[in-house]
């Protein structure tokens, strides 16, 4: 019991964040530990990108 109020408050906050249209993206990036620069994307036929996929589970040296 009591979960309904907590869930309703979380839903209210989530909707406010979703529809506010703004937000402090820099503080979110800092909190998540994401670089401000976008990640480099490789083309589907790029041999470097394919080689990286083959060794995902192995530790880097």
What is shown here, in short?
The protein has 61 residues and is mostly helical.
Name the descriptors:
54% helix, 3 helices, 61 residues, elongated, mainly alpha
Describe the protein's topology.
Blueprint: H1 3-19, H2 25-32, H3 47-54
What does this structure look like?
This protein has 61 residues and is mainly α. 54% of the residues lie in helices and 0% in strands. The chain is built from 3 helices and no strands. It has helices at 3-19, 25-32, 47-54. The longest helix has 17 residues, at 3-19. The protein starts with a helix and ends in a 7-residue tail after the last helix. It comes from Microbispora amethystogenes. Pfam families: DUF3073 (PF11273).
- Separate helix tally: 3
Radius of gyration: 20 Å
Distance between the termini: 52 Å
Mean pLDDT: 74
Share of helix, binned: 40-55%
Judged by helices, strands and strand pairing, the structural class is: mainly alpha
Total beta-strand segments: 0
Q: Specify the biggest β-sheet.
A: none
* Order of helix and strand elements from N to C terminus: HHH
Low-confidence stretches: none
Strand content: under 5%
Global shape:
elongated
Protein name: DUF3073 domain-containing protein
Organism: Microbispora amethystogenes
Pfam families: DUF3073 (PF11273)
Region (Disordered): 24-61
